[in-house]
Amino acid sequence: MEFIEADSAVLFGLITMVTWGIWIVLGNAASESIDPRTAAAISYLTAGLLALGFILVSDASIAITARGGLLAGMAGLFTGIGLISMYFGLAQGSTTVVSTLGAMYFVVAAIIGMVVLGDEVTMTKFAGIAFAVIGVVLVAR
What we know:
This protein is an all-alpha fold. It contains 6 helices and no strands. The chain has helices at residues 2-33, 36-57, 66-92, 95-102, 105-115, 123-140. Helix 1 packs antiparallel against helix 2 and helix 3 runs antiparallel to helix 4 (95-102). The model has no long low-confidence stretch (mean pLDDT 88).
């Protein structure tokens, strides 16, 4: 059973990687064609409608706890700030630089996980973060 779960995680991770890569390229083209704020709003309105539609056609629970709702709302707040920032960055700079720096969100999440949430700090994780930073510097140059 663990093998199937790992395969699903990899599959969905790959789908996320490819679709977000396409999203940034299309977002860049949109931010060159219309105001980046408008492009960001249309992008997330479309995503929101897709997510709502998915809830309606799936067996997702619509029960919301105060804590869960607050955390989801805060996540949405930071997502929106990042989205608007990305569209402004794309309108003013290189897709390569903006997308590469933006893709470093996982390093921020890993550091928060280790510092705040108590995830184990290992040399392997430290090396991974260091290599990610080096990779971003090389790609963004």
